[in-house]
Design a protein that fits this description.
alpha+beta; two-stranded antiparallel sheet; two-stranded antiparallel ribbon
C-alpha cells in the first residue's frame, strides 16, 4: 500500500524495459500533463494527471513474501 494520493503501484512485466515505456506513454495520452481542462494544478502540471493515473492503476498490491523477499513471478516487477 502506498500512502500518497497521486502515486500508484502495479505489477507487470519487468524483463523487457519497453513495456514500462509503452505503459508510461499510453497513460500520458490518457492523462496528459498540462491539459487545459484540468483545474487542480496547484502542485504543477503533472498533479492532476498523477491523481487520474493512481485512480486507474490503484494504490495497493498483495505480494507474497518468501524468506524476506518479494515472491514475484520470474518476469514480474513492481512499478
Amino acid at each position: 500500500f502506498i500512502q500518497h494520493t497521486s502515486a500508484s503501484l502495479a505489477i507487470n512485466e519487468n524483463a523487457d524495459p519497453t513495456v514500462r515505456g509503452d505503459l508510461e506513454r499510453h497513460f500520458n495520452v490518457l492523462a496528459p500533463e498540462g491539459a487545459p481542462y484540468f483545474q487542480h494544478t496547484y502542485e504543477g502540471v503533472d498533479d492532476m494527471p498523477a491523481h487520474i493515473k493512481s485512480t486507474l492503476i490503484g494504490s495497493s498490491q498483495s505480494i507474497p513474501i518468501t524468506h524476506g523477499r518479494l515472491n514475484l513471478g520470474i518476469w514480474q516487477g513492481l512499478y
